[in-house]
Design brief:
single chain; 222 residues; mainly alpha; 10 helices; 82% helix; 0% strand; elongated
Length: 222
């Protein structure tokens, strides 16, 4: 029934769904680690920060602005030589992860920096008065206080990443986006295109609902 209506076998749809989850999962893990590191450095080195460093802050801030202002489809093409060095190929699901990480890490860094900046200065001053080190302030005071906002930041980043994986079909990255492009758009198969859009909407709805629920639960227990 599905193959007759959509013009594609259910196995291909299921495989595409797993490819999307794979790209999002790996890219999110790596991007979150890099993004957290950049966000913390930005938070520390900003004007009035615990380790104020205008030069380092300006460099990191400029890097984030450049990457975020570059359309993802252009980024895909620009980093192809780097992708070849890292994974040995310019096309495919694994190759798509490299530009996805480069895209999502600065995006998450900015969101996470905003979450950290929401922590009141009084908490930091209290931590300093107790003799806490910079590492202890971040781990035991700032991150727990900002955790609910961090959850929402990661949720927003994940949803943006799902949208980016749809464009990864341009380099044969696989996933739902590749199905929509190859079997839907290029063959004028509109039922399949609508079906892939519905699947992506379902992914986004589930992730957003889960993120909102976890964030609200965290705020309630603070």
């Amino acid at each position: 029934m599905i193959q007759q209506y959509l013009g594609i076998s259910p196995d291909k749809l299921i495989k595409a769904g797993w490819e999307t989850l794979y790209m999002v999962g790996i890219s999110l893990i790596i991007g979150s680690i890099v993004g957290f590191f950049i966000a913390i450095v930005l938070w520390l080195t900003r004007k009035g920060g615990l380790k104020e460093n205008p030069l380092l802050y300006t460099i990191l801030n400029g890097f984030i602005n450049i990457i975020r202002s570059t359309p993802f489809i252009i980024l895909l093409v620009c980093v192809m030589p780097f992708t070849k060095i890292i994974v040995g190929t310019r096309i495919g699901t694994k190759a798509a992860i490299v530009p996805l990480v480069i895209y999502t890490a600065p995006f998450l860094a900015r969101l996470l920096e905003t979450s950290l900046l929401e922590v009141g200065g009084g908490i930091i001053e209290a931590a300093q008065s107790m003799g806490a080190t910079t590492f202890q302030i971040i781990v035991h005071f700032v991150l727990p206080e900002a955790f609910a906002s961090v959850i929402l930041a990661l949720t927003t980043g994940t949803i943006a990443l799902i949208g980016a994986t749809a464009m990864a079909g341009y380099i044969g990255g696989g996933g739902i986006g590749n199905i929509a492009l190859t079997y839907g758009y290029q063959t004028f198969n509109f039922p399949l295109m609508f079906a892939t859009v519905f699947i992506l909407i379902a992914f986004v709805w589930i992730i957003q609902s889960l993120g909102n629920r976890l964030s609200q639960k965290r705020r309630t227990h603070q």
